[in-house]
Write a structure and sequence with these properties.
This protein has one helix and ten strands, in the order H-E-E-E-E-E-E-E-E-E-E. By secondary structure, it is of the alpha+beta class.
Length: 122
């Protein structure tokens, strides 16, 4: 009888450990919390050939952002991060901006104006 209690306790402990491990994994990698979203609005008066977000794990590139268009770009992050935004305009000029510090799950807004990039929270 005592052997059944010990065996049952071991099985229950293993199942609870597995459930806790899966819950922690989902918390760290869940799709709603793991990314940073950057909304880029084109108010330059011309098309944008390329929008590039460079971050510590790589880059996100979006091509052909039309006049007045908005695009939401996202990238995964595990904790704190930062990014640089580079927009190449139709006339060849580059606009630069981006967040110096940002946390997982955050959203930012980057407005491309004719001569600069204005960064803000949405």
């Amino acid at each position: 009888m005592r052997v059944l209690w010990v065996l049952g306790g071991m099985v229950l402990g293993s199942v609870l450990t597995l459930i806790a491990g899966v819950a922690l994994w989902l918390h760290d990698t869940g799709p709603t919390r793991a990314g940073i979203e950057v909304r880029v609005e084109n108010r330059t008066g011309q098309d944008v050939r390329e929008v590039r977000i460079e971050h510590d794990r790589g880059q996100v590139i979006y091509r052909a952002l039309g006049k007045g268009d908005t695009v939401a770009l996202s990238y995964p992050v595990r904790g704190e991060s930062s990014y640089s935004l580079i927009a190449v305009l139709e006339d060849g000029r580059e606009l630069r901006g981006g967040a110096g510090y940002i946390e997982r799950g955050a959203q930012t807004r980057e407005v491309l104006e004719p001569e600069r990039v204005v960064s803000s929270d949405p």
